[in-house]
Amino acid sequence: MTISSTPASHLSIDPAQIQILEAYKLMTGLIVPRPVALVSTVDPAGVRNVAPFSFFSGVGSNPPTVLFCPSLTAPPASPTPDRPDDRKDTLRNVEQTGEFVINIVSETLAHASNLTAATVPPSVDEFELAGLTAIPSEVVRAPRVAESPAQLECKLLQILFTGQGQAAGVVVLGQIVRFHIRPDLIDNFRIDPALLDAVGRMAGNTWTTTRDRFDLVRPK
């Protein structure tokens, strides 16, 4: 591993010289806090899936676009029809249906969201596993999570693979076709951050709330 000290006394680390897990630890420790997208999908047969992803962001508002990143997994030792390759169920469902829903995670939803991260067979309904309530969407087939304070129905725009093999990144770009927002959260299209009470991910098992906020006036 190549680590050197720069003139500013920062450590310089060449990602090509470290392990994948070590790079992951650096990224999840430095890119913080990360908002959590609880992504719900269905497969072509209608089997529901919901899972959390913290590599998630907005992209632009014309059209309103979001991205989330379901990295590739280790390929199964014995491929089956249910798990034929290194794609997560969420990614496979999005590829096959072209639709998904991003459910915003509040603190009251954090524990259940974490439960949906369990590694289970594709036939397992994570809504039932985590005790979540599935409600119909208006435009897409994938259900929404009723407990979420806001949900974004999305149509797939593009999927970009940034590498190959375990832990390789996959960028899923989607266009928001419906916003669903709890009425008390919104006033003239502005969202009350205290009532939204969104959470974020730090490194490892650490999550964070978004209650300690401060304002800075953007310079003209």
Treating each run of at least 4 consecutive H or I residues as one helix, how many helices?
Answer: 5
CATH architectural group of the domain at 16-56 and 90-155 and 179-208: Roll
Distance between the termini: 45 Å
The name of the CATH superfamily of the domain at 16-56 and 90-155 and 179-208 reads Electron Transport, Fmn-binding Protein, Chain A
Structural class: alpha+beta
SSE order, one letter for each helix or strand: EEHEEEEEHEHHEEEEEEHEE
* Share of helix, binned: 10-25%
Q: Main sheet, how many strands, which sense, barrel?
A: 7 strands, antiparallel
The rough form would be described as globular
CATH fold-level topology of the domain at 16-56 and 90-155 and 179-208: Pnp Oxidase, Chain A
> What is the strand arrangement across the widest sheet?
5-4-8-11-12-7-6
Mean pLDDT: 93
Radius of gyration over C-alpha positions, nearest whole angstrom: 19 Å
As residue ranges, the low-confidence spans are none
CATH top level label of the domain at 16-56 and 90-155 and 179-208 = Mainly Beta
Number of strands: 16
Please report which band the strand proportion falls in: under 5%, 5-15%, 15-25%, 25-35%, 35-45% or over 45%: 25-35%
